[in-house]
Every structure is written in structure tokens, then in C-alpha cells.
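Handout for the seminar on molecular recognition.
Each group receives one record of this type.
Step one: identify the two inputs.
Step two: read the structure output and locate the region that could contact zinc ion.
Step three: write two sentences on what you found, then compare them with the reference statements printed after the record.
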Amino acid sequence: MSQNEDWESALDKIDWNDVLQDVDKQLLENLAAELRFKSYESLELASQPLGDGYYITYLSEGTWAFWNNARYVEEDVQFFETSQQFLHFALERFKIQGEEVESLINLLSETRQMKQCAYCECEFDPEDPARKELGIDGIYLDEEEQERECCSPQCAVEAMVQEWKEG
Ligand SMILES: [Zn+2]
């Protein structure tokens, strides 16, 4: 068997669907990192689906990120200062009218705002069902003032260890 044939049979054995899926996954993880989420899974869970792969995410700093999980490569994430601005954009772009406008307004008003972890600075959903399941109601480095909230028990522990080291 020549070396060329080896190559060809090796290529034949690769499942390109798997490879492409891995690439897609990596791109989605990049998208999550761009929006300062720990994983794509947490980004998707925290975002409001608008149909056709479009999502809107209400970030901790008050801006709105609009993105598409299938068209992420061709279409950059777009940011809006207010939900009103996004609404204007959506009305023009998707030519929505009447009841659709109302349901979009409702969706936006139901979209939860993210918080930023006081330790790792990632965005997290304070109402994340997975957190609730673990009985995590809000982990504050400053319990009394309920300030400096952490995304996870791990971050709270690491923040405390760091404070001891520095103290
Ligand atoms: Zn964190």
C-alpha cells in the first residue's frame, strides 16, 4: 500500500460530522467567552430565545447583546444600550408588527439581567435554576450589605483565600 492510500483511508475514517460539530462547539464557546460567560451552556440558559437561533442577553452592565448561535461567524454580536434601542432595531430588521411587537416587548421585560461575579468577573444568571437546585440563593462576600456577589461557591472560597493571603 502506498503512503497516499494510507492517507486516503485515514481520511475516509474521519467522521467529518463529528469534526464539524467540534468546530461549532468551539465557536460557541468563543461566543460565550466574548460575552464573559463561563460556558456556552450557561450563556444559552441565561438568554432569551427569539426564534431562528437568535437570542438576546441582558448583561450585568445594562447593555443587551443580540446574537445567533448558527450565524455567529457571519454575524457579529450586536450590542444595544437599552431594550428600547433593541426593539427599534428588531422592528426594522424583522419587519414585525402588531401582536408580534407586543410579544417581543413582553419577552424583553421577562429577560433577566445578569450579574457579574465579584471574583472571576464572569457574567452569571442570579436566577439560574441549577443554582436554585443547589440551594444557592446568593453568595455575597459582604453578607451584611449583600454586596460583591459570587457566581459560585468556588469563587467565594477562592476570594476568601485570596483575602486571607493578602490580609
Ligand atoms: Zn465567579
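Reference statements: The pocket of zinc ion is lined by residues 117, 119-120, 122, 150-152, 155 (CB under 6 Å). DSSP finds seven helices and eight strands in the chain.
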